[in-house]
Amino acid sequence: MKQTCLSFALVLACAGGVLATMPSPPAQAATTATSESSAAPVLVTPAQWQQMASQGERYPWFAKEQARTEAQLRKMMRAGIDVPFPKDKGGGRTHEQHKRNYQALLAAGTLYRLTGDTEYVDYARRMLLEYARLYPTLGPHPEGRGQIPGRVFWQVLNDSVWLVNAVQGYDAIRDALPAKDRQTIDDNVFRPMAEFLASEPKNFDQIHNHSTWAVAATGMTGYVLRDQELVEKSLRGSRKDDTFGFLRQIDLLFSPDGYYEEGPYYQRYALAPFLLFANAIERNEPRRKIFERRDGVLLKAVDVLVQSSYGGLFFPINDAILDKGVDTEELVAGIGIAYARTGDGHLLSVAEQQGRLLLTPEGLQVAQALADGKAKPFDYRPMLLRDGPDGDRGGLAILRMGGEGGQALVQKDTMQGMGHGHFDKLNWLFYDNGQPVVTDYGSARFLNVEAKRGGIYLAENRSWAKQTVAHNTLVVDERSHFNGDWKRGEEHAPTVRFFQADEDTQVASATMRDAYPGVTFTRTQALLRHPDLGLPVVLDLLQVQGAKPARYDLPLHFNGHIVSTGFQAERFVDQRPVLGKDNGYQHLWLDARSPASSEARTLAWLLDGRFYSYRFGSSAPAQALLVESGANDPEFNLRREPALVQRVEGQRAVSFFSVLEPHGEYNGTAEYVHGADSQIRDLVRVRGTDAELLELRLASGARIALGVADDSTSEGEHTVTVDGHAYRWHGSHARMDRTAGKEAAR
């Protein structure tokens, strides 16, 4: 039954039969001494709560979210309060129950402030008193992993997440509790949890997303408890010397463009504590101007995260789960905060796509703007996102044509990404027609699926997903970049050579040194549009220089059903050999192997009604290997996915070159096929004195050439002659088209 209060206090007989003294809810006009006391909410101000309570129902998006939250919370309340002794890994019953509890606490505090219903206060109060009895009895979690297990959860990260969420709910009801209960909960739940996090420097004093959650939890708790010591530790590190802490994390984990070192998947995860804590800082200490730090990098990070997606899903870089996308709750919070601070209507279309908002002041602003029709289509655009604190440690090149559902080429020239980084320098992904076409495996993990090793990263994450052969980049002598040592990888980043993003020509180029001793490789990729081609094509040139002869493998992991193989090959139909013994090769079945050849060959596949023709070659004889993941996988943890591997043996230097062409349509319902034949008749590579050139020869007779200089800083003229025709250009690179004997540079 909904309770209302008309005076300073009300003796309320709650559902559990416990008597409690409750102050007036904020929706009432009367102000009270209690609401002005040290217990008044500080993460959202009383005035902001009042505005949401009085205006929220006017706006459909806000009202819908409030109704959804209330229905979920009422269901939890009917189930009763359950605060079990922690004993399970991720995905287990007690783990999931404690997650539900922090969600319930946040919802209860929010709904009390919005409705004035004191049942929500009593429900949260009784649950928190159960935690006050439990928490002081807890030591390290019995299933704790690593050096720092949590108390409520098996890893300390989850304790931080619990605290970030629960303290927001507690802040909303804290002034509605009897002083004795408030003191009990302060002293036995929130203060010891925050102090536990701050006392673990191997988690708290780090530059990492785990630490971001820990400092945000501690700092937000410090504001709620009026404990400036906790706030200072969270901002400046446990020693308060500015070596670590929230401010240092902002400075080191983001590039000047807002790209996050661990990649989009973990940018999504870290975004919530970064922005929620920043909001708390802004409310309580606006003089710090936290959203202005580093030219507003936290707000840039919201735009960058949306840009790092296709079809609503994030680019699966590093330890990424493939089904995480822009509708994730962390970005729901991010979009609200970013819109409230910028008024950028493009963010509102993302909110529409999410179909959700948070019951916060920022969520109310989003709801108001959506009701007023202020949403604009999000501007997905080609961009180079620099990596590293100073923007000089490589970057993520995103090439786009055809709008949101068109073509997107991603070249991964970024830093290692710390322990979550994969060994895949100069890797690439390609999207078209709403689908991933050239793919990345992401992580080997079934999040919170207890049957799959408790939902943690599987052994195959290290033996397969991180290994270089699981990606679309160079492998030398069947070993991964940096010999699989991520700390070595942190020391070396690619060098971005150049980036161009015009209407018909988009090009990215980078060089990697030190992934292998004595080996340097450079990758230049272009997304090109031409009137004689139905859709833009991808041109790829990978140049390798080594100090000694080696085996060079170049995998291409693709999505679709093979239509044709334009090369002769030995087929392994009676048995499936395994490609190798270690570094990911032990997980690849070998299905076909061609003789070595320097001639350009083709592979075509069909995906979601569209054909893809891949024409590839190399400057030295190469085998073409057709493989599939899933070997040596007794627990069936790996997805079965195909790949093509080009293999060159015993060479010091080689250039791999290829073109990927989307074309045609297959309609199984209407039973027709259009444009199944490639419009590219040949792909030619020619080496000049100081440059290389790729020439596409189209069925129409047109030719498209991309010239790439060895020295990207040279402004002099470069010349490469193909069949008697001299292509000339100045600078790092140039596109040159020929039609009926005429040449045009682009």
UniProtKB/TrEMBL annotation:
Residues 1-29 form the signal peptide. One of its GO terms (molecular function) is lyase activity. One of its GO terms (cellular component) is periplasmic space. It is found in: Periplasm. Residues 386-645 form the Heparinase II/III-like C-terminal domain. PANTHER family: HEPARIN-SULFATE LYASE. This is Alginate lyase family protein. It comes from Stenotrophomonas tumulicola. The lineage of its organism: Bacteria, Pseudomonadati, Pseudomonadota, Gammaproteobacteria, Lysobacterales.
